[in-house]
Amino acid sequence: MVNRELGLVINGNSNYSNYTFDPLTFSCLLSFGPLIYIIPTFVVIIRVIRTFYRNIIGKKDKNFNRNVFTVLVLSNFSSLGFFFSDLIVIRAPSTGIMTSWCYRQEPNRFLNIVFQAQAYFNYCTMLYPVLFSVVRLVITYVPNRHDEVNAKILKFAIPAIQIYPLLLLLHMIPALGVCRQHSSPYSFGAVYVHFINSWRGIMNAPITVINSAVWLTTCLILNFILYRKLRKLKTVSLSQSQTHQNIRNRIIEVSLSLTTLAMLFAYATNLVFLGSFMIDYDIATYLVVFRPFGYDLELCVVPWVFYLTHPAFRKKSDSRIVVNSNRKPPLSV
């Protein structure tokens, strides 16, 4: 049961009956090495969530912009969901730790569900940068009612983001999960979770690449519109006195812009790695070596950039974020 583009299915394959897992391999280092930077990132995400809890649930700051934080926290949860599901689908199996277990399993629904979970969270991570950009646009164009307008948008958008990936995975309902052998440069026994028997043989890669291209384009258009508006506002503010509030709003503007830029890694990674498989499989098999680091970019860079640049995380008493009631848009969160 060989497919050049997808690799050998090892479930029930006698070639793997005597396989022995060796933890001292390059594949293990490649798969679990990222924990060096993943663990500190978890700490940062927890601090972001704690700040969210303190200002939303605890209600210690009435002027805290819950909409931006809500989108960012949900985006972080999606990135974490993708990381853990990807750990089971790609990273851990490539070490060989699951190979003997996979050999003893028939193609089954459990592996299919695990694979779908990875795809589900991947689609979610594509949508939150767009929603984040929309929230920023509303803050800029509707400064006096942005909280009310954004609350209505999120009430509809958040459930829609959770449902949308399910529609893209309907073809996976009849599929069965399997384990496949990685190609070179991975060694014998390095596998990954995949599937067989999807509806009409539809594959996920083309759907994911198309979605990445569409949502990346949408996100770039929204941010171009936002950039033009902020540039006009910056020109106006420079002609006025530089108050402490104006300076603080400028810092927040830069923080949100950098955070938005970091969120674009989700699109770039999908386009590079999945697109390469569709174009040239031989080259793509070597790019897989760098895949874990590519997909970790959004998970790590987004919370770190937001945490290090936004005044909400500064301990000084004057760093509390206050919504400006003037005509100029409050760029704070």
From TrEMBL:
It comes from the Eukaryota. It holds the Pfam family 7TM_GPCR_Sru. Keywords: Membrane, Transmembrane, Transmembrane helix. The chain crosses the membrane at residues 24-46, 67-90, 120-142, 163-183, 203-227, 254-277, 283-307. The keyword Membrane applies. The keyword Secreted does not apply. This is CRE-SRU-19 protein. It comes from Caenorhabditis remanei.
